[in-house]
Amino acid sequence: MAGAQARQRGGYADEVSVAAEGGVRFEVDGEIATITLDRPEKRNAQTFATWSALARIGESLPEQVRVVVVKGEGPSFSAGIDLRMFTSEGVPGQGSFSSAAKSDDATFEQRIRQAQAGFLWLRRPEIVSIAAVQGHAIGAGFQLALSCDLRIVADDVSFCMKEPALGLVPDLTGTKPLVELVGLAKAIDICLTARTVHADEAMRIGLAEQVVAGGDLHQAVRDKVAQLLAVNRDAAVATKRLLQGAQGRTLEEQSVVEGLEQAARIKAIFG
Ligand code: ACO
Predict the structure, then answer these.
(1) Which runs of consecutive H residues, i.e. helices, occur in 153-250?
(2) Which residues form a coiled coil (predicted)?
(3) What is the CA(177)–ligand 1 centre distance, in A?
(4) CB 152 within 8 A of CB 130
C-alpha cells in the first residue's frame, strides 16, 4: 500500500533499483522505511554507489515515513569504506583515492559533499532514524551509525573510528554527533587512538541507547519503532526540532522557541 502510494508519486521504484546498485536494500512498510546494507560477504563495505543510493533514498523518501531503520546484513553492520578505494585500481566505475587526489579542489569537495548527503538526511525532524548495529561498525560504518538519531546495538558490537590510523579524517558527518554524544575528550580518545569501543562502554558513554543480545536486536528495534509510532506525529516532529536546536540556543532563547512551538500545537489541536 505504502509502496504503491510512493510509486504513484514516482521515484520509489527507481530508488529501490538505485539502492540495489549500491549494495543497499530499501523497503517501505507504511510509516516505516528500512535500509539494509546488503553486501555481507564483504562485511557491508561502502562505496560511492552506497552513498549515492543513500542520498537518493533520502531525496525520495515517501512522505508517510516516520521511522527509518538502518541495518546491516550478516555478522557486521559495516566494515567501512571499501578498501579497494586505497588501491590504484580502485572500485570499478567509481575510481580510487589516487584518482581523486588528481582532481581539482572544487571537484573533490563536491564529491565529498555528495557522499555526505547520503548521511545528513537521516537527522531530518520529520523522521526518527535508528541504527541497528551488530558486529563491526568501522570508519564509514561507525559514521553511518552516528548519523542516526538512535543506536540500538548487539552485545558483540565494536565501534572503531579507523580513519586517522589510515592517514584520513572522519568526513562522513560523524565528528559532530560523536562529540555531542560522548564529549570532546572522549571523542579525541576514540578517534586519535582508533581504538575499539565495545558494547558496555558504548552504553556507558552514550554511544548506544540500548544493548541487547545479538538474537534480540531486531525485536528490540521493532519495539522501539512501535513506541515511536505511538506518539502523535506532529508533536514528535516539533519536539525533535526543539531538541535539535537546544544546544545552539541559550535557555532564554530555547524557552521562547518552546512557546512558539506550543502555540502552534495548541492552535492545531484546539483552534
Ligand atoms: N572493504 C572491502 N572488503 C572488505 C572490507 C572493506 N572495508 N572489510 C572486509 N572486507 C572483505 C574481506 O576482504 C573479505 O573478503 P574475501 O572473503 O573476498 O577475502 C570479506 O570481507 C570478509 O572479511 P574478513 O576479514 O575475512 O572477515 P572477519 O570477520 O574476519 O573480519 C573485519 C572483519 C574486522 C571487519 C575485517 O574484515 C577488517 O578489518 N576490514 C577492514 C576494516 C577497515 O579498515 N575499514 C576501513 C575503515 S576507514 C573508513 O571507513 C573511511
Answers:
(1) 175-182, 184-193, 199-205, 217-229, 233-246
(2) none
(3) 25
(4) yes
Residue carrying C-alpha cell 526543539: 242
- Residue ranges lining ligand 1, Cβ < 6 Å: 42-43, 45, 76, 79-83, 136, 138-140, 162-163, 166, 168
Mutating to test ligand 1, I would choose from 41, 42, 43 the residue with most ligand atoms within 8 A of its C-beta, which is 43
List the pLDDT tens digit at each of the 271 positions of the chain.
Answer: 344 444 444 566 666 766 777 899 999 999 999 999 999 999 999 999 999 999 999 999 999 999 999 999 999 999 999 999 999 999 998 888 888 888 888 988 999 999 999 999 999 999 999 999 999 999 999 999 999 999 999 999 999 999 999 999 999 999 999 999 999 999 999 999 999 999 999 999 999 999 999 999 999 999 999 999 999 999 999 999 999 999 999 999 999 999 999 999 999 999 8
97 burial class (0-12, 13-18, 19+ CB within 10 angstroms)? middle
Q: Left, alpha or beta for 127 (phi > 0: left; psi -120 to 50: alpha)?
A: beta
